[in-house]
Amino acid sequence: MATKKRALFIRVLVQARPYWLLLGVIVLLNVLAVSLVLLKPLGLKILIDSGFNHAPLPGFIAGFFPGGIDFRTVVLLSVALVMGIALLENCYKLVIWLLNTVAGEKLVLRFRSNLFDHVQRLSLAHHDNMGTADALYRIQYDAANIKTLLIVNIMPLITSSVTLLAMLAVMFSINATFSLMLLGVIPPLVLLIRKSAAKWKQQWNDVKTSESNAMSVMNEVLGAIRIIKSFGRESIEAERFTDRANEVVDGQMRVARASAWFYFVVGMLFAIVTALFMYVGAYDIHNNRMTLGELTIILAYVAQIYGPIDVITRNISDIQSSLTSIKRAYALFDEPQEFNAAVQHVPCPAVRGRFSLKNVSFAYDPAKTVLSGINLELQPGDRLGIIGSTGSGKSSLLSLLLRFHDPSSGTIQLDGLDIHSIGLSDYRNQFAIVLQEPLLLSTTIAQNIAYGRPEASREEIVKAAKNANAHEFIMNLPAGYDTQVGERGAKLSGGERQRIAIARAFIKNAPILLLDEPTSSLDMHTEQMVIEAIGRLVEGRNTFLVTHRLDTLRLCNIILHLEKGKIVDVIRDPAPSYLEGKKALYTQQLQL
Ligand SMILES: Nc1ncnc2c1ncn2[C@@H]1O[C@H](COP(=O)(O)OP(=O)(O)OP(=O)(O)O)[C@@H](O)[C@H]1O
């Protein structure tokens, strides 16, 4: 195993640490179960040798019958041995199967949970770049390969290796020539299995591709059925589907032919070995070099030996593909989290709200500056309205305040402390946010409102909803506060979702408020209700409000105008004429 693979394997073992004992028990049971496999033909051997040919019983059984044994007892003993071994073997299988399931599922659960937890803590820049599908695939499918590797690949590999070695050892003790002959068959058999496995894999992939081609024809046709009908193309599309479906049949036939040939060759190989052993064995028995019972054991092992060889060969190559998937899952683990645990952070002191931005610049991509040279001083209780045309950097400024991203240069201070020196979750806890598209979770209205403070009482939830002008519509819903909002709040209107988001901000009671276009997707009537609720919410809190609606700006005492990432002006306590001027400018821009 290359060094990298070995390092990865060690990482997997460390990840599996809480289950080492369980995995150890499974290995032990598997190895013990091998002795039962070996003992399987013993009953038959005793029946043949001691029942019919009057040979003495094997030493470890003879001790139980000091006075000798009659034919009837030998028969009963053989039958009892066959039954007893089968019973034990199946009990073992049952226990091992259950333990494998417990260990496998727990391994996956722990790995997935750790990975999920880690992914949530990756920077927003990472999520923006990678998207969600890739992370989802790695957590859902790649991580599950930890079970495949340890339980499906390695456990059977250990068991089969021990079984194979033990069978060869027993055979060797009975007849060295036979075991050496069998050893000679193993290398070509391994080669044959490896070559065939690679070929089958490719053929199965081809079958899957043909199947998905046939499916896509169906999908396309049923999705565009009106056009198909209007052009009268039904028969041609049916032919197109049949052509693709025929490729599936051809592919399946190729797999079937290859498998049939493989099993024919393997079957013949073992028939030749069995015939050879019978031929040589017959003379050995005739010349008293071996008993018939011993030959029976050897032939039984020959019949069983293909299983372990097959398992070992296939699993060695499957381990490679499991490790490749696990590597992808670990690659996600190795992405640095946004919070650097190595840096000592101070707890956030009680927020007074003095924000100071000094020469702050920022770029998502070094080639394009989004904010540059931002200088701003805010006093406790200030309500800052941020305006500017689309793409001017308003939301990016909020992202910097929330530490979703870090400035490329410059500093942001809160009450004299660099915000990067404050513990991240402690810092973010000082904020409540309301976005243009509020994100609700698929639980009840009450749980959504109490999201930032799950311990809130029902009275507090109702009070927050009343403050957010939401109580009335909530009470009109069939289950009131216990109504399920559906995925992302799909069962509620935009205005209702927004008021829930405002209630959520009320209940969090954070000293700093960020609002990003909270009213821009609402109709006029709803907007008025939301503005009224926001008016109550901003009282006594440091507020950053991004908006295109200049009416909403009347709630603010400072206006910051951004264009192309730079400050155009910052006006404290603007006169109504200033706002009117900005309104005129915006109307002009919109007309353009
Ligand atoms: N995650 C991102 N990655 C790269 N570029 C981004 C990202 N988010 C925004 N930008 C770019 O940064 C610039 C500023 O975007 P930002 O969203 O801050 O503007 P905005 O003033 O809030 O615009 P709008 O009013 O349309 O919401 C834009 O050019 C935008 O394309």
Automatic annotation (TrEMBL):
<dbReference type="InterPro" id="IPR036640">
    <property type="entry name" value="ABC1_TM_sf"/>
</dbReference>
<feature type="domain" description="ABC transporter">
    <location>
        <begin position="355"/>
        <end position="589"/>
    </location>
</feature>
<keyword id="KW-0812">Transmembrane</keyword>
<keyword id="KW-0067">ATP-binding</keyword>
<dbReference type="InterPro" id="IPR003439">
    <property type="entry name" value="ABC_transporter-like_ATP-bd"/>
</dbReference>
<feature type="transmembrane region" description="Helical">
    <location>
        <begin position="59"/>
        <end position="88"/>
    </location>
</feature>
<keyword id="KW-0813">Transport</keyword>
<dbReference type="InterPro" id="IPR039421">
    <property type="entry name" value="Type_1_exporter"/>
</dbReference>
<dbReference type="Pfam" id="PF00005">
    <property type="entry name" value="ABC_tran"/>
</dbReference>
<feature type="transmembrane region" description="Helical">
    <location>
        <begin position="261"/>
        <end position="282"/>
    </location>
</feature>
<dbReference type="GO" id="GO:0005524">
    <property type="term" value="F:ATP binding"/>
</dbReference>
<protein>
    <submittedName>
        <fullName>ATP-binding cassette, subfamily B</fullName>
    </submittedName>
</protein>
<keyword id="KW-0472">Membrane</keyword>
<feature type="transmembrane region" description="Helical">
    <location>
        <begin position="176"/>
        <end position="193"/>
    </location>
</feature>
<dbReference type="GO" id="GO:0140359">
    <property type="term" value="F:ABC-type transporter activity"/>
</dbReference>
<feature type="domain" description="ABC transmembrane type-1">
    <location>
        <begin position="25"/>
        <end position="321"/>
    </location>
</feature>
<dbReference type="InterPro" id="IPR027417">
    <property type="entry name" value="P-loop_NTPase"/>
</dbReference>
<keyword id="KW-0547">Nucleotide-binding</keyword>
<feature type="transmembrane region" description="Helical">
    <location>
        <begin position="148"/>
        <end position="170"/>
    </location>
</feature>
<dbReference type="Pfam" id="PF00664">
    <property type="entry name" value="ABC_membrane"/>
</dbReference>
<dbReference type="InterPro" id="IPR011527">
    <property type="entry name" value="ABC1_TM_dom"/>
</dbReference>
<keyword id="KW-1133">Transmembrane helix</keyword>
<feature type="transmembrane region" description="Helical">
    <location>
        <begin position="20"/>
        <end position="39"/>
    </location>
</feature>
<dbReference type="GO" id="GO:0016887">
    <property type="term" value="F:ATP hydrolysis activity"/>
</dbReference>
<dbReference type="InterPro" id="IPR017871">
    <property type="entry name" value="ABC_transporter-like_CS"/>
</dbReference>
<dbReference type="InterPro" id="IPR003593">
    <property type="entry name" value="AAA+_ATPase"/>
</dbReference>
<dbReference type="GO" id="GO:0005886">
    <property type="term" value="C:plasma membrane"/>
</dbReference>
<keyword id="KW-1003">Cell membrane</keyword>
